[in-house]
Amino acid sequence: MSPHNFNKLDADKDVSLYRICELTAQIAQVPKVALLYRDGSQVCYTADFGFKDECHEVLSILISNSVYSKDTFHCNSLMDFELDQSQVDFLKKHEVDSFSFYPLVNKSGDFLGHLVLLSSKQIFYSDSQERGIALLRAEATVVLQERLLISEYAQIERLFNLSNDLICIASVDGFFKKVNPSFTKQLGWDEPTLLTHSFFEMIHPDDLEKSKKEIEKLGRGESSIEFSHRFVCKDGEYVDLEWVATPESKSGDIFAIARNTTESKAREHRLEQSENRLRVFFESSQGLMCTHDLSGVFLSVNEAGSSRLGYQVNQVVGRSLYDIVPVHRHEFIDQYLSDIKKNGKASGQMVTRHRDGSYLIWMYNNVLERDPTGEVDYVIGNAIDITQRISLENELTQARKLLEETGKIAKVGGWSLNVKANELTWSPMTKTIHEVPENFVPDVSTGIDFYKEGESRSKISKAVERAMNFGEPWDLELQLVTFKGNDLWVRAIGQAEFKDGECVRVFGTFQDIDESKKAEIELEHTRKVLDNVINASSEVCVISTDVEGVITVFNVGAEKMLGYTSDEVVGKRKPDFLHKPSEVLAHVKELEQEFGREIQQHEIFTIRADINGFDQKNWTFLTKGGQEKSVSLVVSTMRDLSNEIIGYLGIAIDVTEKVKFEMDLINEKSRLSAFVQHAPAAVAMLDHDLKYINASNQWKKEYSMQQLDIIGKSHYDFFPELTEAAIARHQRVLKGAIERKEEDVVKLPGETSKRYVSWEMRPWYLFDGEIGGIMISTQNVTGFVKQREELERAKELAEEASSAKSEFLANMSHEIRTPLNGVIGFTDLVLKTRLNETQNQYLTIVNQSANALLSIINDILDFSKIEAGKLELDVEKCDLYEISSQATDIITYQIQQKGLEMLLNVAPELPRFIYADSVRLKQVLVNLLGNASKFTQKGEIELKIENLETYENKNKIRFSVRDTGIGIKPEKQSKIFEAFSQEDSSTTKKYGGTGLGLAISNSLLKMMGSQLNLTSEVDKGSTFYFDIVLDTEEGEKLEWFDVSKIKKVLIVDDNDNNRLIVRQMLLLQNIQSLEAANGLEALQKLAAGERYDVVLMDYHMPFMDGLETIQKIRETIQPDPEELPIMLLHSSSDDQKIIPACREYSVMHRLIKPLKIQEFYTALSHIHSSGFKYEGTEQLEDKGAFRAFTVLVAEDNIVNMLLAKTIVAKIAPNATFVEAANGKEALNYCQYNMPDIILMDVQMPEMNGYEATGKIRALDYHTHVPIIAFTAGNVKGEREKCIAAGMDDFLVKPVVEENINMIFKKWLELEPEIPVSTNPSEIDDSNILHYNSSKLLNYIDHDMEMFQNILLVVKEELEKSLSNISNLVEAKELKPLKEAGHKLYGTAASGGMKALSELAFQLEHLKVFDDADVLELFEKIQVEVELVKLLIDRDLV
Asked: What class of enzyme is it (predicted)?
């Protein structure tokens, strides 16, 4: 029996098999039928009828009990059949008590399976039923054979398409009818070309006749032929092909297989003789032909058959089948002889044994030939050796299984694309690789999209496109992203199948190579790193060799050291050519002596490395240029994983310089010894035991050792009186310390005077880093010490003189300022009384002269301090906008009195705060503005501040003052920066001044890291500027209410620069502006119907001034100020002229030049406020309503006392004035009656102001009385000294009314006196000391909308401050607590909360953190905050 491959038989899809089962059941009148088939050694069922789920179990029981054979088998009762009782019960349970097995046998006699009929009762078949069953058996056999043929055809088709051999079908005329893809792969010809050209056209001319003759054999009846020839490729080259061809008897077509043997031609010569014998044997073989008798004895045999069995013909004849068939198969011979006797014929397979013992399998078809004479019958045997075929079938089966398993292990899947149907099919492994679900249906786009976007997707898209268009196959390694999002490396192989020139199918394989690819990438990376390391070692020579000694690696360091290139030596030379021959010979002798045998050439450099793993030795290398290089060479073995030596690695370091260095070291040692001895300094070198190694001649001279032999003797022998401290110092130095002393007293034996020396002791080190001893050097500094003592005495005298000078300057400052204070103060007061024109003129001159004298004194004092180096900068955080405003305010009146335009141009992008000495910076600016005013008669003066560069928290800022004055000649420009110098003497006479201003300013700027620069043109003006780098801070962004309502502004000003500045200011809030250069142009723009939210009008303009223009606007264009608000820009000197007109024409706001951004936006924010009042609606104050307060003035100068008394009486008529002639009198008064404020002079007899302030502060009072310093000195540190003494503020004489008024407003509450209550239940509107809303309203011009917003902010800020202070009290952190007190003081003072501001002041000025005091103060603050919040709530709408 032969096995059949029904592996792919799918009964579920083959309805015909089920129908056969059903028809059989109908014909035989049985309930159950099954169809069994044999697949190899297994028996399987493929279709059934009448069963539920028990079919497999039922048939398994019957098959396992030997009913499965080629014969028909009937069983009418299970009792007749040997079964276990459990099996019988199971069969009966499923209504099986009888059954029949009908074999299925094809025409060739091959057994295929059984048709099984089963019933619960006995089975009896009629003839017609038997006939019907026979027909159905035949039909089942046909169906099974058809399925087998279909399966085999599919395998053949697959083999045809995938085989690397050339398989074709050709007609007898030499034209191909069909070719497989290998023709295109191996020959380059496409299928259409091959099908339209004769086979003979492509054979090499020399082989043509031979090929034709071979093919003609098929026409003469030969069953197959084999031949070879050369066949042309598309590129014109020839390949050797070996053909096996067989004719098809019906069609006459030739089936042929060719193999490309071009590459194997090289091996043909060795195999030629063997192949010739094999070819002759094969071509002459016609199988085994024989005759034998009925007992199996051979009567005759052909030569080919006998030879196949391994015998000569005469050796086979007379032998029996039993002689050539293995003993264990003799029973089959018995059966065979019996069958042929019985049936007269027999066919099947028979196994024989070759003479050499190997087995042969034959397919036989034998017949019994009866002798016509009636004598002995004999058998004619015809057998074909199918041993190889059976072997191939087995191998194919194994290969198929192996392929399936290999596919799983190697992760190889397949795919196929039907181009016409656009259907893509993936094998299960392909789906596994893509990590998609089993039911995933791929298509072309999704298949492409799995490839990683970028290079991989682009490559596969192009490969598919070229395959479908040009038939080009591909084999690519690409990355894809699986369904689960994992990155994966795959190998994609594909090719296209064409039909009639059109691509109909694209198919290929798909392999997961992720692990190997990543390993390959990592290996390549490692190899590259190794190569880079080797090549990067440019100072190290790296040479490796194979086991034969041939160089395999010659790195960059080797090229650099030896002059040879890698190409010159790698794979071509051994390293011995690099060595000095004499050294090699000496090394060979050394090795032979060491190992006691002759050393072979290949062992010279590696024998020690072979034994020890490495060898190190110094050699002399010879470079390409003939130079000698001393190297240290280490040779080590390179081994593989099995520890076998695969080569040697040599690493050499150039030690030429080291050898030279060692020689130089010896020479250097000699020179060092000579240097130490002859050094001009006293130097001694001691070893670790403090014994002399060497000493300079100067040392011997200094310490009287010229005649002594000191080398090797102890230092202590020559200095026996050294103290324990000196000996301990030596030990510290021996441990690594370095000791020195700039000045020490030494008294040597025999010397009467002191000797001063400077000395140094330090360790010196051996080559290995160990301390070898001490190096001592000394220098006699006796002369230097004496000179220094003389200089110190001179310095003391100079300091005494300097102190006297400083004291003189301070006294002079006080003495000069004291009378000036009277002159300036009283003239200021008199000028504010009613005077006639002459009196006013004379007193104005007196006042100006006194101020000029004061300015000169200040300049001289500043200059003297700068020259003496006594002036220091006080750097602090200050507001840049405020500094610029104050500087211009100081000089604005003076500038505007001359009819000049004052411009303030501060760049909007500048940070708000800078860290600088604001006083000195302002002094420089005021000086430059004053000079500009002095030397400018017409035009304008501009103070411009701009940002040049920005760093992290620093800015480079340029300050410049530009004027349109007389200018300075180029040759005079450098002179003006010199002290006491001006451009020329006529300038001094005409304009006045000391010539110190610019010198002082430049000196101050140098202290700030800057200097003054100048650009000037005669009669056109000058620009003084300086650049300074300052620490900066943005600060909180300024916010203005209601500015968003202003969208468009008309700027009316004849000064181009001023219009530009205003325009830039407006752009900060993205406010659009239009400009008019005069009043007439403004009227034209307004008359044109343009609508503006605000008109900003300058007062001083030619032809038609600002007020005249406003008058025209109100009379002819827009009388309603609500519809067209107007703001007026003017000079402070114009107040008396313009105030009445502003009232008359409803000017909303007056702004004094120069325009400052804060004032400008504050005014803009009030334009649309509900509480805004027009110019002239100010409420008059009732001075008589001010509460009474007491002011104590401590002043020893009668004039200054009178001046203070007069000013106070004018400012506060209800104030009580108390006089104290010195600090002692002031203290005595305060011991009994504490005033509301104290004005304290600092220089007074008996007790000065500092001492008096300290004692007053020591008095136990619950309230803090402001003490204001009066001083005539304006020197650096004066303010700090006053504050440190306990004073609160600082006034510099001369004192005028404005200064006193400012101090009172700052430190006193000049409101009506109201009783104070701390009980919230007793709060009424009279509690102004706790919360004075009028003060806040005055700040914001009674804008009620803004007032409500501010109250909310103030209330929120108070709550935050109270919470913060509570946390800081609990944490006991004094510094942050004081900062919180300062912040609370600012909020309270600005919001009219006097009681809270006083408590906050106490908190800010705490000296120490006393738990009880702090807690008590916090409780007071807490009560006061709650009280203020209740009062604020009453004002909130």
From this structure: transferase
> What is the layout of strands, in order, in the sheet containing 423-426?
423-426, 412-418, 502-512, 487-499, 474-481
pLDDT tens digits along 1226-1263: 999 998 888 989 999 888 888 999 999 999 988 866 67
pLDDT band at 1194 (very low <50, low <70, confident <90, very high): very high
User: Quick one: tokens of 127?
Assistant: 């003839």
Beta bridge partners of 695: 684
Can you read off the two tokens belonging to residue 928?
């430059």
- Intervals of CATH 3.30.450.20 along the chain: 163-263, 285-393, 411-519, 537-654, 660-780
Model confidence over 500-544: pLDDT tens digits?
Answer: 889 999 999 888 888 888 877 877 776 676 666 666 556 788 899
537-654 is a CATH 3.30.450.20 domain: yes
DSSP code for 1318 = -
Q: What's the pLDDT score for residue 1038?
A: 62
Pairing type for strands 502-512 and 487-499 reads antiparallel
Q: Is there a contact between 929 and 941 (Cβ–Cβ < 8 Å)?
A: yes
Q: Is 556 exposed, middle or buried (0-12, 13-18, 19+ CB in 10 A)?
A: middle
Task: Tell me the one-letter amino acid at 712.
Answer: G
Where do the DSSP E strands lie in 735-888? Answer: 739-746, 755-765, 771-780, 876-879
Q: Find out whether 838 and 1249 touch, Cβ atoms under 8 Å.
A: no
What's the one-letter identity of residue 751? E
The span from the CA of 570 to the CA of 553, in Å, is: 6
pLDDT, residue 947, reads: 93
Q: What is the CATH number of domain 872-1037?
A: 3.30.565.10
Dihedral angle of Cα 127, 129, 130, 134, to the nearest 10 degrees: 140
DSSP code of residue 327:
G
> Rounded to two decimals, what is the model's pTM?
0.36
CA-nearest of 320, 316, 319 to 302 is 316
Q: Taking the domain 660-780, which CATH number applies?
A: 3.30.450.20
Question: What is 163-263's CATH topology?
Answer: Beta-Lactamase (3.30.450)
| Interacting residues of 194 by C-beta distance below 8 A, sequence separation 6+ | 176, 179, 183
Helical H segments across 832-879, by residue range: 837-868
7 falls in which pLDDT band (50, 70, 90)? very low
**Topology of 1048-1166 in CATH?**
Rossmann fold (3.40.50)
Q: Which of 315, 316, 211 is nearest to 254 (CA)?
A: 211
How is domain 411-519 classified at the CATH fold level? Answer: Beta-Lactamase (3.30.450)
Task: Report the candidate in 1135, 1064, 1148 with the shortest Cα–Cα distance to residue 1099.
Answer: 1135
Query: Distance between CA atoms of 1240 and 753, rounded to whole angstroms?
Result: 60
Topology classification of domain 1320-1435: Four Helix Bundle (Hemerythrin (Met), subunit A) (1.20.120)
User: What is d(CA 1311, CA 1336) in angstroms, rounded to the nearest whole number?
Assistant: 13
Give the three-class secondary structure for 368: strand
- Which residues of the chain does CATH 3.30.450.40 include? 11-153
1126 DSSP assignment? E
Tokens of residue 451, six digits:
């490839």
Q: How far apart are CA 1102 and CA 1077, in angstroms?
A: 10
Whether 1286 and 1264 have beta carbons less than 8 Å apart is answered as no
- Where in the chain do CATH 3.40.50.2300 domains reside? 1048-1166, 1183-1307
CATH number attached to the domain at 11-153: 3.30.450.40
For the 285-393 domain, the top CATH level (class) is alpha beta
Q: Return the HEC string of 6-67.
A: CCCCCHHHCHHHHHHHHHHHHHHCCCEEEEEEEECCEEEEEEEECCCCCHHHHHHHHHHHHH
Residue 566: count other Cβ atoms within 10 Å of its Cβ.
15
Q: Are 339 and 330 in contact (CB under 8 A)?
A: no
How far is residue 102's CA from residue 1152's CA, in Å, rounded to a whole number? 128
For the domain bounded by 1183-1307, which CATH number is listed? 3.40.50.2300
Give the pairing type, strands 1149-1152 and 1126-1130: parallel
